[in-house]
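Sequence, please.
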């Protein structure tokens, strides 16, 4: 246990370059590991010069020639030289060290790099197994001075060690390709992933909260998206309704403006005598062909030849001087009304229809209002000559509207309709009522009305649509629309489209409809957005909710896994009670009345570690003590720590139990540890031997300091257990007298304990600071046969354990 660092290995020192005068013929030095109590360690054979260690000196005068024989078990074993153990190089400038070999001096200068392990072996060989042929007592002193020179040379030439280490590292890096690096990283990531998933799915406290978080986040996310979706859809619907209402207001305003020409013309008709009897001049329809008896002497305008059903012949009425005067006066009045109507180019025609027959029109041919209209063909003119003499009450296509106008109390609107003169036109009619006693009557459906006829204004539908900016308005809002009217044809409702946007078919479903306050034939506008009322982000919002929830679940899982792994590591370092106190910032000091402490170390570890690389030492200790850890968990004991090759454990602390039970657990563990060591071999096939010691008694456990806190034991029992291990023998378990007494009362096993005697047969062993102690060897353990009484005793002991496990007050 002495001469070791905190990790149990001899401190590393850099190799040095030592100048040695080499003879012409080399000899073999066989440096074999020390056979400590029969345990075989590794063999290391060197090929070097036939010189003594006294000749290997730096900055010292040459010593007399000597011969060194390295012995192992009393025999010399030559072996082939290790590659790279001896290297020749050019003489160092300025150096003048020479040596005499077999009485001959040579000036040949050789630089040899000596490793740390070789230097330790040389030291061991010089001081223990090497026989010097030098005379007198100066050989040993010379050897010591030579080794001191080597260490001094190591110190002064540490740069050589560093350069060699870096060169070796560079060679390893060069041999480690990028592909191997990537494969190593992938394998490392795979191991981490497997470990994380294994921890997550094996712990309900990790998997269930993570799954619940995922479900909660998904539900909340979907509800939020659904809420935003509804809010956005409702907002869009309100926007659509607002735009539709703006369209309705425009057309209502247009119609209101159209009422002014109608009422103005109506006033002129009623006030001017020229127009007062115009209805009487046109007269009721009478067809001499069908009713020759009553129509022979009729003064009414006759049916127009070729269009007897739909038109009347007004040539005889207006081709007279009086008729031309009435026409000119109408043109003057109608021109003024059109100009001041405020409808602009939308008002394309004003008509008078006494007795329902279109008798006067202004203008007869209208080209001016269609110039520059993108909705009609270039050069288009509205020719109204075909409408002159149109008998609206007898035309099957117009009779419905005309008959609805006569009894009306206000303006009657219809359309847009495709008129005789061409083009879609919006029609507004106002009946003119006069005194029926003067003959101003009209009969509709056998009902007589005091009606002169009606005034008609025609509004060009394409111009109205252009003035309303309906297309641009909906395009700017990224919306589609469809404007329809409902006509009654043969008693059936027929819906016709009068205006629609380019992609209005998407408004067939999922739209907003609004009945417009225009026309008497039911205008309805349907409005929708290009991408519907639901926002387009809904398509990718739901996947984002699921992906985001999954990411948060993974993050929580990683946090919980990390926390669980850290807690697992903490629980391996110290008991839960100590961790809680450490978190609260409390001092951790606990007293235990009876525990059993185990100490063990590897026999010949110093020599073995000097012959192995640090990586090999670490692998050996890890493999061996990992198996010890499994056995410690199996027997319910607490591993305190490992110091180098020393393994320290305790039973009865921190989980309290009775003294005999603690001793039983620890003895069983020690026996199993011996079995593990017997079956264990290093990678190169070498066997390992340990010695162990147990001691029972009181102790104090606690954590010292705040940096790198470690749960450790204090008290004389710890020192006693260490002395038991130090004075133990290879592959034997030495126990203290108190432990032997505890094992006599072991609850479930009978232990074979043999008194220790020295070579003279005297009992016990001398311990530093304690004198001679009567100790025992634990040889084996046998399980007791169970009985009702044994079970009763075990139950009583279990009760005592429960009482003892209650937390104690701090000491």
């Amino acid at each position: 246990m002495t001469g070791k660092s905190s990790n149990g290995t001899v401190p590393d020192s850099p190799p040095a370059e030592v100048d040695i005068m080499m003879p012409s013929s080399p000899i073999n030095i066989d440096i074999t590991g020390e056979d400590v109590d029969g345990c075989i360690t590794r063999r290391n054979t060197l090929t070097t010069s036939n010189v003594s260690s006294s000749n290997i000196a730096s900055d010292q005068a040459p010593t007399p020639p000597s011969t060194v024989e390295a012995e192992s078990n009393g025999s010399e074993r030559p072996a082939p030289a290790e590659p790279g153990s001896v290297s020749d190089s050019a003489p160092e400038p300025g150096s003048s060290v020479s040596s005499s070999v077999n009485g001959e001096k040579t000036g040949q200068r050789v630089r040899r790099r000596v490793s740390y392990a070789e230097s330790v072996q040389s030291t061991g060989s010089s001081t223990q197994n090497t026989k010097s042929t030098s005379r007198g007592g100066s050989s040993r002193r010379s050897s010591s001075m030579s080794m001191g020179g080597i260490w001094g040379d190591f110190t002064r030439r540490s740069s050589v060690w560093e350069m060699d280490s870096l060169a070796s590292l560079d060679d390893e890096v060069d041999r480690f390709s990028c592909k191997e690096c990537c494969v190593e990283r992938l394998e490392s990531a795979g191991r981490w992933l497997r470990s994380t998933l294994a921890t997550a799915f094996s712990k309900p406290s990790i998997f269930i909260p993570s799954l619940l978080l995922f479900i909660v986040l998904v539900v909340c996310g979907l509800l939020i998206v659904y809420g935003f979706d509804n809010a956005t859809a409702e907002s869009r619907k309100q926007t659509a309704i607002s735009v539709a209402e703006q369209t309705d207001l425009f057309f209502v305003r247009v119609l209101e403006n159209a009422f002014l020409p109608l009422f103005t013309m109506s006033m002129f008709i009623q006030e001017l005598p020229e127009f007062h009897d115009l209805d009487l001049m046109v007269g009721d329809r009478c067809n001499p062909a069908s009713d020759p008896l009553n129509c022979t002497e009729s003064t009414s305008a006759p049916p127009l030849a070729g269009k007897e059903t739909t038109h009347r012949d007004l040539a005889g009425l207006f081709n007279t001087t009086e008729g031309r005067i009435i026409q000119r006066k109408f043109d003057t009045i109608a021109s003024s009304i059109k100009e001041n109507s405020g409808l602009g180019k939308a008002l394309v025609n004003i008509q008078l229809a006494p007795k329902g027959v279109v008798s006067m029109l202004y203008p007869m041919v209208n080209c001016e209002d269609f110039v520059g209209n993108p909705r009609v063909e270039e050069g288009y003119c509205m020719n109204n000559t075909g409408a002159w003499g149109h008998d609206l009450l007898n035309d099957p296509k117009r009779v419905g509207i005309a008959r609805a106008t006569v009894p009306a109390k206000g303006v009657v609107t219809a359309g847009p309709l495709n008129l005789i003169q061409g083009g879609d036109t919006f029609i507004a009619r106002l009946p003119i009522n006069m005194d029926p006693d003067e003959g101003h009557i009209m009969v509709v459906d056998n009902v007589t009305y005091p009606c002169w006829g009606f005034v008609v204004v025609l509004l060009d539908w394409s111009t109205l649509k252009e003035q309303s900016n309906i297309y641009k308005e909906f395009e700017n809002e990224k919306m589609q629309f469809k404007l329809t009217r409902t006509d009654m044809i043969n008693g059936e409702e027929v819906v016709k489209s009068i205006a629609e946007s380019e992609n209005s078919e998407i408004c067939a479903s999922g739209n907003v409809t609004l009945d417009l306050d225009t026309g008497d034939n039911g205008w309805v506008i349907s409005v929708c957005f290009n991408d519907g009322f639901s926002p387009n982000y809904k398509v990718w919002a739901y996947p984002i909710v699921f992906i985001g929830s999954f990411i948060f679940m993974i993050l929580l899982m990683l946090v919980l896994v990390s926390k669980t792994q850290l807690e697992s590591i903490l629980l391996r370092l110290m008991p839960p009670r100590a961790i809680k106190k450490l978190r609260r910032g409390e001092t951790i000091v606990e007293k235990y009345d009876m525990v059993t402490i185990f100490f063990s170390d590897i026999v010949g570890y110093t020599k073995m570690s000097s012959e192995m690389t640090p990586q090999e030492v670490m692998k050996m200790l890890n493999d061996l003590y990992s198996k010890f850890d499994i056995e410690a968990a199996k027997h319910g004991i607490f591993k305190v720590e490992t110091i180098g090759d020393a393994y320290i454990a305790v039973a009865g602390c921190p989980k309290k139990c009775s003294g005999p039970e603690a001793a039983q657990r620890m003895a069983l563990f020690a026996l199993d540890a011996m079995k593990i060591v017997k079956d264990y071999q290093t990678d190169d096939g070498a066997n390992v031997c340990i010695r162990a010691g147990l001691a029972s008694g009181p102790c104090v456990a606690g954590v010292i300091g705040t940096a790198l806190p470690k749960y450790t034991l204090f008290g004389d029992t710890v020192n006693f257990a260490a002395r038991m291990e130090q004075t133990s023998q290879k592959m034997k378990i030495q126990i203290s007298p108190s432990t032997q007494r505890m094992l006599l009362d072991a609850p479930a096993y009978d232990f074979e304990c043999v008194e220790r005697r020295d070579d003279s047969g005297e009992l016990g062993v001398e311990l530093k600071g304690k004198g001679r102690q009567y100790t025992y060897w634990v040889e084996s353990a046998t399980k007791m046969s169970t009985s009702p009484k044994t079970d009763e005793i075990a139950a009583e002991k279990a009760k005592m354990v429960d009482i003892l496990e209650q937390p104690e007050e701090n000491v």
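The chain has a mean pLDDT of 76.
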